[in-house]
Amino acid sequence: MAETFAFADLKHILVDRVGLPEEDVVDDPDATFEDMGLDSLAFVEIQLAMQQEYGFTIADEDAAKITTVGEAIEYVNGRLAEQEV
Fold this sequence. Notes:
Layout: H1 7-17, H2 40-54, H3 60-65, H4 69-84
């Protein structure tokens, strides 16, 4: 069965790796990381965590396009689907 990346997985990264308080994590696909109080340095940590946990590299050009919760989930799931082929 295919591995999928869900909001709970992203929340785990935001809380455990980035140190964002759990109550600040917004379960809304349109919520931006900036809305949650994260800066570009925090997103680099998110990027590294996703790469380590899921075994693929996120190009900086792709990372620059990921600004919302929904975009992050969609991107990771797309990359996971590519790995299955």
